[in-house]
Each structure stands twice: as structure tokens, then as C-alpha cells.
Design brief:
Elements: E1 2-4, H1 6-13, H2 19-26, E2 33-36, H3 37-48, H4 53-67, E3 72-73, H5 77-89, H6 94-105, E4 109-111, E5 125-126
Parallel strand pairs: 1-2, 1-4, 2-3, 4-5
Helix pairs in contact: 3-4, 5-6
């Protein structure tokens, strides 16, 4: 199970995503790719700040309802316990710690362009921009 970090998904949705990211994404079985409810909220928040909010929200809704149907991971009680453990010993921003907690609670590997940010959380990470 691979959890896509918000910046990774945002870049995939951009007009000019990284060729390396596109190649990595195309090589992954769709069923292994997941997003979190936090990523969904972050994308919706960004959309609401744009003049074309309604259109962008429709695209996000279609993506979550179709492309990631059944693969949007929640922030649940298990994630809450993992968040407490992570924030008790790190000074990460809350959204970053929540992403790590969701990954940990679901035994997911986080696909992120900044794996070093998550090093102190103990979760597995991979860099889709530099998949070695």
C-alpha cells in the first residue's frame, strides 16, 4: 500500500508534472495507490482559494469518487493514537504528523518528495521523483 503525499498528488494534477513522477506513477498498480482524507481536505482548501473553485472541486470530487474509490484513508482512532506517539517525540507540523500517522496506522509506505521530513516518524517512505 502506497499513500500519496499531498504535494505528490498536487503535482500529478498540475499542468506540467515532473516526467520522473509521471513515469513512476504509470508503473504502479492503481490498486496499491491511496490518498488520505487529509490530502483531500488540503486539495479542497486550495481549490476554494481559486477563482475556478467550483470547477476544481468537481474535478477533485471525481478523482476521489472514481480514481481513488475505496482508497481514501481516514483519520481514525488508530491514526489518532499514532499521531499522539509521533507528536510526543517530534516537532513536526500537525498536517505532516497526521500524514505520517495515517500511513503508520495503515502500514502504508508514504510516497513523498521529502522523505527526510518523515525520518523521525519511523514510517516507510519512497521518493517517486528518484525511485532507486
Amino acid at each position: 500500500m502506497i499513500l500519496l503525499d499531498t504535494p505528490v498528488l498536487a503535482e500529478l494534477l498540475s499542468a506540467t508534472p515532473s516526467p520522473a513522477l509521471l513515469a513512476w506513477f504509470a508503473g504502479q498498480p492503481a490498486a496499491t495507490l491511496h490518498i488520505s482524507c487529509l490530502t483531500e481536505a488540503e486539495l479542497l482548501t486550495a481549490a476554494l482559494r481559486t477563482p475556478q473553485a467550483k470547477q476544481t472541486i468537481s474535478l477533485i470530487d471525481e478523482m476521489t469518487d472514481t480514481d481513488f474509490a475505496g482508497r481514501v484513508l481516514p483519520f481514525d482512532s488508530a491514526a489518532a493514537r499514532d499521531l499522539a506517539a509521533i507528536t510526543a517525540r517530534t516537532a513536526l507540523p500537525l498536517a505532516t504528523a497526521m500524514t505520517a500517522a495515517i500511513a503508520r496506522a495503515n502500514s502504508a509506505t508514504l510516497a513523498t518528495g521529502q522523505p527526510e521530513t518523515y525520518a523521525q516518524t519511523g514510517i516507510a517512505t519512497l521518493n517517486p521523483y528518484d525511485p532507486r
